[in-house]
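Sample entry (942 residues):
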Amino acid sequence: MALGKLRAVRHAFVAAVLTGALLPVVSTGEAAAATTLPAGFVLRDTNTGTGQYQLTDFAYLPDQSVLATAKNGRVQWVPTSGTPRTIATLPTREISDIGLVGLAVAPDYATSHAIYITRSINVTGGFVFRLSRFTVGLDAAGAPASLGGEQSLFEVPGISEVHAINGVIPAADGTLWLSIGDNGDFTKVDPGALRSQDINQPYGKIFHLAADGKGVPANPYYDAANPASTASKVFARGFRNPFRMTIDANSGLPVVGDVGWNTWEEVDVVQRGSNQGWPCWEGNHATPGYSTLAGCAGVPNQAPIFEYQHGTGPMQGNSVTGGIVYNGSSYPAAYRGSYFFGDYVTNKIWTLRYDDQGRLTQAPENPPVFTGVGGPVKFAAAPNGDIVYADILSGNLRRLSYSAGNTAPVAKATTTTDPDTRTVSFDGSASVDYDNDLLKYDWDFGDGATAADAGPTTSHQYAAGTESFTAKLTVRDPLGLTGTATIAVAPGNHTPQLTLTTPGDTAKFAVNQQVGLSATATDTEDGPLTVTWTSAVRHCPSEATCHSHPGAGGTGASFAQPFTEHPDSRMEFTAAVTDSAGVTTSKTYTAWPRQHRITLLSTQPAALSIPVEGGVNTALVTEGASFDVEASPLGTDGVSKFTGWQGGPTDTTWVVTVGTSDLTLTANYDTPIDQRYNGDAALRTTLGAPTAAEVTDGAVHYRAYANGRLYWSAVGGTKFITGPVLDKYVAMGGLTKLGPPTSDTASTSDGAQFNDFNNGGNVGSIYYTAATGAHAIYGEIRKKWAALGYGAIIGYPTNDEDGTPDGIGRFNHFIKGNNVGSIYFTPSTGAHAIYGEIRKKWAAYGYERGLGYPTNDEDGTPDGVGRFNHFSLGHSIYFTNATGAHVIKGEIRKRWAALGWERSYLRYPTTDEYVTGSVYRSDFQGGYITYTPQTGAVDRPW
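Predicted structure, serialized as tokens:
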């Protein structure tokens, strides 16, 4: 009861936090704890306008403003400065932990204005979970103002009001990643949670979808004939509530936080086709109450890379929120490349590291160093890479910045002068902050007048008298660093007029393509002026990390330079003139690269990278650029081997040059199945040609061929199954029932075909003969059969292991020639063999319902003449060629035993126990024994 109560309280708390209904519990929990951060880190809050207990998700737009969602269906636009506003309120079922919970911005938002939203919706007769694509409507100023054009891409019925549809991630290749929970009842052991294990049910899954909502061909259960089927969409299964997911930029694999039930929270690097084990497993542990369900028999468990236990201790928590890998440059080196994730109930954030194969290489900090941080329910990256999270407790976005790594902004300013009014217009909008922070603009006009926080543009009228001043612009970032620029001002002087002729704002350039410009300049006071040219390469691994490399310069009416080969770069060409009063005018043209997307794919999940692009596996790259791409020698499964690039070298590194269109490069990996099939000519003859793609089912891979299948597992290696043995294996449920094969299909000396299997340490086999068919034998019965020499004594099984009518025992029947045998097992008696005439007699008495279960294998008597079995109800059957098989029971059996069994003068029984009058009697070769309650058992010779 105590555990159940604690579990109910915990889940009530989780649900209530999401509905905003349990304020007293929040106020007494860890949410009130003081914030602690590592030295140098600060939290910067942005109000989303959603209010407390409503903020569920957010995403940055290209202009650095934000869209944020509220659980009750509101979609907020949060400008870079100013007040958030509601742009839509969508119909939403808001209860427990369902509502509007997921938001993502399409990679092509700048042109499509498309976003994706996941939410719960009431419909006639119930409710559904839906993923939709919307189009953002803009106002006259170009700001988000509405949502329209809803297109439903994925919709499933709602069953329970927890563990529902979660996050969506639109990938650069146009596909979508989607997560959804088991939709089970958390208050009890709910057999419905087994939906997570069924690839034909859309719950407890990670999906990989095409743009139209159908499955992608690379999915492990994809059916080309039915791409819209649930199975075709499944990438991985066995999740309870995969709350928040990211796609690792290196391996292309999902990384999720899966919310636990009784005891464990987990973080998973999700392999293609993996099974995370829920509800049969929670973390690395069999789930009490679930693991004994029939549907959990043989369910594998892909171990998480990290798990933590429920509680309030430093390394404990109650509801994991999956995070992201930090790929910025302002944090200390110890955090770069680390995965940040949190627990929103206990208000903390950890980091960990994992390798290219999804294995933990650095455990989370113990104790955690980010605590009292609010309730993180979604992590994302700011434009400069800073970790930002949605704090549901406050309704704020909280940005984790490193003040010691902050870069000072650079101030830039130009002027234009109206000498008739002595008014100078100042423009500081070219100022930059390499952390991509919003800047404040403070102006000092040089005549004693100032304008604090006046924005990037302003103007000032100078009094008559003095003809020159030195003005100054100071720009400030949110962490207090500043940059300054001085500007020569002559209020009575005309500003030089500069005309710049460029290739045009829409022009794009390939590597080494000439960028040519020209300019003319005149000044009212000085006449024609000489133009001075400067150039720079602006390298921008991200917009937040841009930095300049000075280039060539010159003077004259024209200037040209070849476009840079520097990756992720644009070129800036500035024409400048200065008149005799010291007033400068300049104009800058930015030449943008003509880019194409390069995408790295692999035939098996593997870590692929474009090193020059920071190790990601897809990027926009300038036409004509040459760079290297790299493939890991091993796939993420640790066993698939790189064999070469399709159309390229066999080395893992390939130097490529981008042509005039998008480029997709595919790395070939031979799985262990490929390796064996390609390296074994005899096996290819046996199996024939492949008939389907390789399938991943949890930790096991298999592939179908014309004449059989090849299976690979860590426990069995690569083994093939063919013929009737394969037919039986598939009919029984294959991996779920018996586990993967540990032997090839082989033949015994007397012609039987068989495969051995291993299901979590339980060894089983399927044996086939033309006379018996194919049947499975495993566990204790198989051990007994093996101890008897397999088919040597009692032959081969004629049925699959089955249960006895009383529900206690298990059995297999066998046949060797005309001799029928059996092995029966119960936990109390063990497994024992019974066959021949003794078995016939036992069968005549009703098997276990008459005499009980055998307690020994059929054995020979000490005199070498007879055979016998004892049984659990205190009876025996003895057999000799001379006497046949007979049952001896109860008190008569005890008397015979006391006399020395068959070594006594009575020797062997010649009848079963029978009743004559009111007397029980058994006859023997040397006499008989009678029994009545009055006399007891009495023996007499003939």
